[in-house]
Amino acid sequence: MVQFYERRRIYPECQSGWYPLILDLDNKIGSIEPGYKVDQIKEKFGGLRFYYDQMSVNDDNRERVDKLVDAAEAKAYTTCEVCGVSDSTVTTSGPSWVKTLCTTHRGKIR
Predict the structure, then answer these.
(1) Model-wide pTM > 0.85
(2) Fewer Cβ neighbours under 10 Å: the N or C end of the chain?
(3) What superkingdom does the record give (predicted)?
(4) Given the DSSP bridges, would you call strands 38-44 and 47-52 parallel, antiparallel or unpaired?
């Protein structure tokens, strides 16, 4: 994530299991608009939120970027925040939180 920080000047506010999703998304968006700016990346309600600044791209490319972000955010709902394992039943919750965790990590938080 050091290279990501050097490029985008922001650290994700989530656990490392989602870093591969973020790096893949960054590479894909960067191929469309290399100088785009990331505003914030965080976990919220067990899902990934990826906020970026307006880009100087045409409407077709903006739609492509929005679809890439939507796909990464959707994939995060089935990817453990801690280890990155994909599992279709990873979302768990407590009294005031929601986390996306694999079976192994879900068992460690109870």
Answers:
(1) yes
(2) C
(3) Bacteria
(4) antiparallel
Count of the separate structural domains present in the chain: 1
> Could you please report the per-residue DSSP string of 2-28?
HHHHHHHS---BS-GGGHHHHHHHHHH
Q: In sequence order, which residues have a C-beta less than 8 Å from that of residue 30 and are 6 or more positions away? A: 7, 36
Residue 109 lies in a domain: no
Q: Domain containing 3: what range?
A: 1-101
Q: Half-sphere exposure of residue 31, counting CA atoms within 13 Å on the CB side?
A: 7
Rounded Cα–Cα distance for residues 82 and 80 (Å) = 5
Q: How far apart are CA 8 and CA 91, in angstroms?
A: 29
107 lies in some domain: no
- The C-alpha atoms of residue 3 and residue 6 are separated, in whole angstroms, by 5
Flag whether 96 is in a domain: yes
| Per-residue pLDDT tens digits for 40-61 | 999 998 999 999 987 788 889 9
Domain annotation covers residue 108: no
Three-class SS of residue 84?
A: coil
